[in-house]
Amino acid sequence: PNKLYPRVGYLLAGQQSTVHGRNDSNTWWYIANPNKPGEYCWVWAETTTVSGNVAGLVVITPPPLPKVADFTLSFSNLHICGGVGYMIFRVENIGTESFWSSSITIRDITHDQGFSGPEDSNTPFISSPGACPPGAKELEAGETAYVAKGIGMSLPSGTKMRGIVVLCTQPSLGGTCVERKANFDF
To answer: Tell me, what DSSP letter sits at residue 137?
Structure first.
């Protein structure tokens, strides 16, 4: 009963199954898996129509969420801190694991060459696109923060750029690491 669980089957439009239970908020139904007889799975209530009285269905406690490290990335802005230009990226932790460290690289994709980095940090997470590094040590599941990459003052006007951000679940780029890329014009 969460998008983070692995998919174990599917229910096609018009296909039917028997509902055997629900979560406590009636947002997911526990059904007989139509793809694997004798097994059960969860289906999202917003994508299904149930007939009958659901109030009498047993509430089933789902298993713990699987450990998933994942985040979204987007370019935010250029911010000057103490005379140094920083490219700021917004990161949203959409997984179940916390992130503790980062590496950021900036590439000039117009000229297909490196521009700045990589730069690693164990305190990468700043609170706003106008904050200056260093930042906090941890980005918990469900939280949004910003990461920054110092680029000095040489700014590549009119250039297509790519930020490559790696976030890891342990300090010093340890644990599970996830890479995301964000293209932007400068």
So the answer is: S
